[in-house]
Amino acid sequence: MGPMFTVGNPLTQKEFILIPKPGFIWVDNYGFYFDPITQNFKILTGPFVCVHHTCYQVYQGIVVSFDMEKKVWESISAPIKPAECLSCPYIRDLNGELSFTVVTRDWKAQVWVWSAEKKWVEVICANFEKLDVFDTNNNRTCWIGETFLLRHKEKYDTYSLKSGQLSTFDVCIGDIVMFRPTLFHCCKREREVVSTKKQRKKSCIQVFLLFLLDVVLL
């Protein structure tokens, strides 16, 4: 009984390593980590949010973290007490930093960031009292550029950091997930394409000059 994990390269299809079964029957969410130095595999279960090599989870008003490299657990006090929250807290990776988002009982959407000094820094405090916010327990938050979005049911409430304006628009789509580039960069690819075009043009000119030289010699 229980899940089975195998590790391998799907491109070569040569070798797949079977990892020993973990001590749980069912898992809905899990994180996978590989240490290239020690060549050890680590599996962490639960709805964790991973920032760099540390995984975070909110439990009863406490942010629990686990460092995958140091194998160290740590508890972080939330920036606001659970009794003051109208919505469930929501944590996510915000530009490489852990963020903590919540709607308070006085209808304020607050976003906090866990700084390098190991303290919470408030970056957004928007008053949502004028908006028709209901099902806050099932909300989803997103921060795009200078706009903060709070989703509940079939609509989004937005707050502009630049103008301070609040607005609402209806949607019929799923959650908005922020795109984060990995190893490839569009600008770099464009430069490579331009460079390739220049090389092709240069090669064509060289071939044409050689052709003219052959014609002259003939």
UniProtKB/TrEMBL annotation:
One of its GO terms (molecular function) is ubiquitin-protein transferase activity. One of its GO terms (biological process) is SCF-dependent proteasomal ubiquitin-dependent protein catabolic process. This is F-box associated domain-containing protein. It comes from Amborella trichopoda.
